[in-house]
Amino acid sequence: MKKIYVGLIGFGTVGAGVVKLLRNNDHLLEERLGARLVLKKIVDLDITTPRDVSVEKDMLTQDVGEVLNDPEISIVIELMGGYEPAKSFILKAMHNKKHVVTANKALLATCGDEIFKTAEEEGVDIGFEASVGGAIPVIKTLKESLIADRIESIFGIMNGTSNYILTKMTDEGNNFTDVLKEAQDMGYAEADPTFDIDGIDTAHKLAITLSLSYGGRVKLDDVYMEGISGIDQKDIGFAGDLGYKIKLLAIAIRRGGAIEARIHPTMIPFDHLLASVNGNFNAFHITCDAADSIFLYGQGSGMIPSASAVMGDLVDISRNMLKGITRRVSSRFRREGAAEDIKLMSMEDIVTNYYFRFSAVDHPGVLSRISGILGKNDISLASVIQKGRKHTGAVPIVVTTHESQEKNVRKALKEIDRLDIVREKTILIRIEDDRLR
Question: Quick check: is 340 in a domain?
Answer without folding.
Answer: no
